[in-house]
Each structure stands twice: as C-alpha cells, then as structure tokens.
Design goal:
- With 308 residues, the protein is of the alpha/beta class.
- The strands form two sheets. It has a six-stranded mixed sheet, sandwiched between helices. Strands 2-1-3-4-5 form a five-stranded parallel sheet.
- A hairpin with a 3-residue loop joins strand 10 and strand 11.
- The chain is globular.
- It starts with a strand and ends with a helix.
- The mean pLDDT is 94.
Length: 308
Amino acid sequence: MAVAAHINPDGDAVGSVLGVAEVLSGAGKNVIVVPPKNVSAKYGFLSGWGLFLKPWESKKSVDLLICLDAGEADRLPKGARELLHAGTPTVNIDHHVSNDGFGTASWINATAPSTTYMVYALFKEGGYEITAAAAEALYVGLMTDTGGFSYTNATAEAFAMAAELVGMGVKPFEVAKNLFGGSELSHYHLSGAILGTMARAGGGDIVYMYANREMLEATGTDPADTEGIIDVTKRVAGMRVGVFFRETEDGDVRVSFRSGDSINVRLLAESLGGGGHNEAAGCKINGPLDGAIRSVLARCEEWLAEEG
C-alpha cells in the first residue's frame, strides 16, 4: 500500500499519513509513503517521520493507493499522481468540500474537523489497534486543523476525540512544545521579514503580507518555514480577510486566505481557481508577485463588496 497527502503538507496531512502508516503497518500491511514537497521539519518529532525522507522510486508495484486530505488529484505528489493515472486502485479520504471524489472509492465528509478525525473514526469502527505513536500523529492533525481548537470546527466531537487520544498516551504539552518551540533563529528572521510587509487594503478589511524568494534566500529558510504565518492576520483588529502571498521557485504565487468573521474564504479561493475550507483556503496564481498581489487584492475587495 502507498499512502499520500497533498503537497506542502500541513499538520492534518502529515498526521493522517503517519497515523494510517502506523496503524496499517501494525496490522501487518506493507506500507510506503509517497513523499510530498516542502514538508516542515517541525513535524520531525513524530514517530515514522523518516517515512517522508525515503526516496521515491517511480512506478513502484502498489496494490492500493490511499490519498488523504488532498482536495484535488492535482495537489498530490508526483509519485501518487503517477500511480493514480496508471489505474492503481485508489481510496480518497478527505474533508474538503471541494473534493470531486477522485479515485476508485472516496469518502468525503466536509463537516469533519480534520481528515485525522475521519481516519480515527474508521480505525475505531474497524477495530484496529491505535498505538501511542498513531494517536500522537492523529492528535497533531486534529489540533492544527482546528487552529489549536480555536476555529469553528473545534466541535464537541473534536474535543471528545482529543480526550480519547490523550487517554491513549498523547501529551498535549509535549506536542505543543515540539510544534511551536525549538525553531531555528533563521525561522524567526524570515517571520520578521514577512511581518514587515503586513499592510491593509479594502478600507482596512483586508490584511495581507508576502514572502518573496529573496527573503528565503537571505534567511537560509525554505517554504515550509512560512507554514502557519497567515494565522497572524487573524489577530489584527478589524480584519475580515487575511491573505498571504508566497512566491514559488518557478515564479508563480501561492495564496493563502483566512476568514476574520463570517466571510467564506473557500468560495473566494474557488473564484480564483483554488479551494479549501470556509475559514482557511488557498489558490495558486501566475506571477509575477506584484501583479498577483494586485489582482488578488482587487478580487478580495470585489468579494467583500458582494458579501456586504
């Protein structure tokens, strides 16, 4: 079996993959991970982290491909796309409402707080053994996708799952320390450079910032070091939509959105060819960076005017 999540993986993608790999390996299955691009080293404390670092050999003989937290097939790593296009039986498990149900079989639950929540429910229903290592990976996915249990998807069910995982040995303090502490100084130098670009648009309703390639080169960092910085925009008074622009190596621009109130940023992202969740979404725009910033901010202003 091969397990894959979306490129530029967040905590839910990482936790889903490692949780599934751990549980299925314990059940006697031969499991390999399709390594994604730009996975953050901050998840390196999780058991099974080394699976992300193993080189991928194209056209491996795989009986089943399990895709997790990938809103669309195009966001899968190259190795997973090759298996999918080669006709490999594929199971698609995700909580993005924009998921079109690709694969041989799909389970899409847009009301689930995280993909790890779905995986956990599946394993419980199937009677699989959930080890302490798997529990920690699943907890990371749940915690990060609920914004540290601060988003509207931090439901009673999410807290119930968290409580059960803690009962299995997860230590929330240790997880938080590993995720949010111990970053290299270069990470904070990059964060400082990005925060220095923060500005308002749309009469103050939009808070945006950006990272260009020069910033990453100057600080000796990589794209994974920008993960989560978009959430800072939610802390700015009066913000309705937060936007973060990151220039990619090929000159295109990845755009992340956050909602500050009832604005559905998923629909905003979909209008730009992207997708995601109601409170957190994203898209990819053709460069150059300054042109992408102008066009996306103009669309955000239009969107807010339409929303009222």
